[in-house]
Every structure is written in C-alpha cells, then in structure tokens.
C-alpha cells in the first residue's frame, strides 16, 4: 500500500469519526430524515457540479448504473437512515461497536462478489481489531439503562449492511467510471427515497435554520460526505476492499481522541487496551492480509 493511499484512508477515517458529534448536534435542530436528505443532496450536487466543471464523463453501461443505484440505496438511503435515527436511541460507544462490524460483513461479501479472500493473518487481524472495538466501548456497552436499545441497534445494523453493500459495489466499479461523478450520483440517487420517507413522516418546516445547523449541515455534506466518499473510492481503485476496510477500526480511536481533546473525557486502561488491539488488527490485515482468487491486478484510477 502506497503512502498516498494510506494518507487518504486515514483522512477518510478521521472525517468519518468527526461525523458522530456533528450528527448529534444537528438532530436537535432538525427532523432526522429531512436533515439526512439535505446532507445527501448538498454533497451530491457539490460532487456532480465539480465533475461537470472538470468535464468528467457520465457513467456508461447498465452494469455501472445498476451498481450506482445499489450504492445509493445502500450507503445513502439505508446508511443515513440508520445512522441518523440510531443517534437518538444509542450511545456513541455502542453505536461505534455495532457500526464497525461492517468490515467483517464486507469481508464475507467481498469474497463472493470480488473474489477477495482473507488469508489467515488477515482473518486474525479482523478478529483482533473488532475485539479491540468491543473493549473500547465495553463500559458503555454493558452499563444498561439505554432507552429503546433494541431499536437503536436495529438502526445501526441496517446502516452497517447498507454501507457493506455499497463498499462492495464501489470496489466493483472502481476504475470503470469517474469517482467524482459516481459518488455524486449515488448520493443524489440515495437521497430520493430519503426525501420521500421524510415527506411522509416528518415536517421539513420544523428545521431550525440557525448558524449552528447550517455549519453542521455544510460540514457533514462537504467534508463528511462529498470529500470522504471521493477519497474512499479513489483508495478502492488500488487497494483490496478488505485491506482498506480494516482501517475503519480507527474511527472509534479518533472519536475517543476528539473526546479527550474537546470534551475532557478520560481514557482508562480498558480503553487503552482496546486501542492497542485495534491498531494490531489494522497492521495484521494491511500486511498481506488479503489476496484475489482470480489473480487480477488492482483496478487503476485516480481522482
């Protein structure tokens, strides 16, 4: 894995980690799905607009468009729906644990769809990394007293499944279409079901258009969605999905660091142990942890 790819992956994980506190602030100022729809539409228009200015081509082929639709329904519709609703019912620690089962789900699906197989070292790395996440969130996971716990977990699992399907589809079409145009279109496609559900179940006029909400919305749309998705797709053009996905175990680590720096949270020995396990897991998976059955070379491409 090149230094550039490593930098892009770490940057994407950092941006994803920053989304959690922003969503928590935003859902207090706007209905959940109306907020999610606005995030998707702004991010999608920004990417498609930039792609148009750069004269990037539209995707071609029924297979590519089918993959874009699956990406949109997965990452944007299901991912945003689950993420925004879960923030109301489940604590960040529990949400982080369940959400980070996504690399394990993707590892199995990538083996079927992409022909990527984890070696023994890679499987051990995924297990150790996920164990580290459980250790990090153990105090909150077993503290009890969570309102609507089961519903919150269901929303997070829904989001994780959506992102899993999307990641596999991204890897499948990576190098076959322009990343800017592809990620912008999938965001716009996925925003349509979100808008329909929001219109049927919420009052969009209940949004509090204050400075805080506008700041949070733009930060999530432009940096937490548009930029991070382009970084992620550009990485998957050259890096096996299982290898790149292993770095999602860094999201809760970055989240804990933000908590210490900005919210005065303490990191005890249990969380330190979890951080160590997560890092070991990433190292094991990224050091020759995945292979391709077909012997194909990674797809090439750039943003």
From TrEMBL:
Its main location: membrane. Pfam families: EamA (PF00892). It is found in: Membrane. The chain crosses the membrane at residues 7-27, 33-53, 65-87, 93-114, 126-143, 149-168, 180-200, 206-232, 244-263, 269-286. The keyword Magnesium does not apply. One of its GO terms (cellular component) is membrane. It is a multi-pass membrane protein. Keywords: Membrane, Transmembrane, Transmembrane helix. InterPro entries: AA-Vitamin_Transporters, EamA_dom, EmrE-like. The keyword Transmembrane applies. Residues 7-137, 151-286 form the EamA domain. Belongs to the EamA transporter family. This is DMT family transporter. It comes from Pseudooceanicola sediminis.
């Amino acid at each position: 894995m090149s230094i550039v790819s490593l930098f892009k992956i770490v940057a994407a994980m950092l941006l994803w980690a920053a989304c959690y506190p922003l969503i928590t602030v935003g859902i207090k100022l706007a209905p959940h799905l109306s907020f999610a729809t606005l995030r998707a539409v702004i991010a999608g228009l920004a990417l498609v607009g930039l792609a148009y200015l750069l004269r990037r081509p539209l995707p071609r082929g029924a297979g590519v468009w089918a993959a874009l639709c699956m990406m949109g329904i997965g990452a944007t519709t299901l991912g945003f729906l689950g993420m925004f609703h879960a923030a109301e019912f489940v604590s960040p620690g529990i949400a982080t644990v369940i959400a980070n089962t996504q690399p394990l789900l993707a590892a199995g699906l990538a083996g079927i769809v992409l022909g990527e197989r984890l070696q023994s070292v890679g499987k051990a790395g995924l297990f150790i990394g996920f164990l580290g996440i459980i250790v990090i969130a153990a105090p909150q996971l077993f503290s009890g007293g969570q309102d609507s716990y089961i519903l919150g977990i269901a929303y997070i699992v829904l989001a994780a499944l959506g992102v899993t399907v999307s990641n596999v589809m991204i890897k499948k079409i990576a190098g076959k279409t322009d990343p800017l145009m592809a990620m912008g279109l999938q965001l716009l496609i996925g925003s349509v079901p979100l808008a329909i559900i929001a219109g049927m179940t919420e009052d969009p006029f209940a949004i509090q258009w204050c400075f805080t909400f506008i700041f949070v919305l733009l930060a999530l749309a432009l940096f937490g969605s548009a930029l991070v998705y382009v970084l992620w797709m550009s990485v998957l053009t050259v890096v096996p999905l299982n290898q790149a996905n292993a770095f999602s175990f860094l999201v809760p680590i970055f989240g804990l660091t933000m908590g210490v720096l900005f919210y005065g949270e303490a990191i005890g020995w249990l969380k330190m142990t979890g951080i160590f396990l997560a890092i070991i897991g990433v190292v094991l998976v990224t050091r020759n942890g995945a292979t391709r059955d077909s012997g194909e070379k990674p797809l090439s491409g750039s943003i």
